[in-house]
Amino acid sequence: MSGRIRILNLIAQFPGQTGSGTYLNAILNEGLKKNYEMGLIGAIQNDQEFLRDDLSYLNLIQFDTGVIPFNIVGMSDNMPYNSTRYTDLTDEMYNIWRMNFKEAVLKAMEIFKPDIILTHHLWLLSSMIVELKLNIPVYAFCHGTDIRQFLSVDRFQNYVKDNLKQLDGIFSLNNDQKNLIEELFNIEKHKIHVVGGGYNEDVFYPLENKEIHEVTKIVYAGKLSYAKGLKPLIKAFKELKEEHHITLSIAGSGNGAEEEEIRKLGNIEDIKFLGNLPQEVLADLFRESDIFVLPSYYEGLPLVVMEALATHLRIVVSNFSGLIDYIGDSLNNSGLIQYVQLPTSLILNDLDEKEELKYKENLKKALENQIINHKVGYNNFAPFKSDILKFSWEGVFNSIEKIILF
Fold first, then answer.
1. 72-110: per-residue pLDDT in tens?
2. Is 94 helix (H, G, I), strand (E, B) or coil?
3. Does residue 265 sit in the same domain as residue 191?
4. Closest residue by Cα to residue 379 from 292, 305, 302, 320
5. How far is CA 43 from CA 28, 80, 147, in A?
6. Dist. CA 365–CA 374, nearest whole Å
7. Residue range of the domain that includes 232
8. Do residues 297 and 291 touch, judged by C-beta distance below 8 A?
């Protein structure tokens, strides 16, 4: 690639601990590999650490201080750290939030002098960047949680719609999301590009020879929240445990009453809560495990599914149409993935008793199928190596690069 093009990346929350944080860091890594100068503006608070001395420019706006006397405003209502909800922002809080991000962007324009801006989430920060009219191309990533915010926080809808139309382009995770962006934000379809999401092939890779052990190890990775389907997962696991030799490892964190209830419900011998894990440690956990489960009620494109496939885990995941489309027919028909019928409501963070029971039963059947398939040794990933490799971050960034440079 020619020259030292400067790319400024923006995210309104902590640049880690979430799916969008993983995506952001992957974009930074791939940009650096291609000799771009990469800059970042994000948010940080309390005892959080973000160590990246490889960036040409870094400005993390400090929340929960005298200047910004509230927690980071999270794209999900339940974040893996203390956060403020967009729906709870007062006018005063919003003005403080806006002023600090605006000053940070204008400072970066003066010091870093970016050629291109990549901003994460189709929401307030991306809208504000467009409104500033910085005279450089601005592209935004949709991660799915932004769509949920748009649908649930009416007060900002007109502002967001008016400004996002002026973006130079939008990157979506799948075709379903592309169609939804066009419909909700009234954005011309030619501006919306499906680039998907990926995994780091230097970190997520399979063992050469993996033995089948007597105990089948199941693993979950994500937030500890009701919307991730952890309550029916734990209940299904307890029932399956009566007939199968299984364990469940839960990687990730949450906060508040939801995390507390989930930990209480899963307080049994064969369930381990491991907290947040660095990517390298998570990859080791995957290689030691047999089945990955993601029983979420809503996802844009769960990158962790790609990471699990790359380490040759059998998969149990809710039947997100965007994921099914992105994965493709070859893997979908391989038997390595079991899709679970979603509950009727995708907007609620929790299910009523009847819906949860139905979903738990569907989840239990899918898990049992994978437990049995694993035990009989049907774990041949070799025919699907090329299908999995196409999900690498290098391929994703190549698609992005063609759009932002031409």
1. 999 988 888 999 999 999 999 999 999 999 999 999 999
2. helix
3. no
4. 292
5. 16, 14, 21
6. 14
7. 216-388
8. no
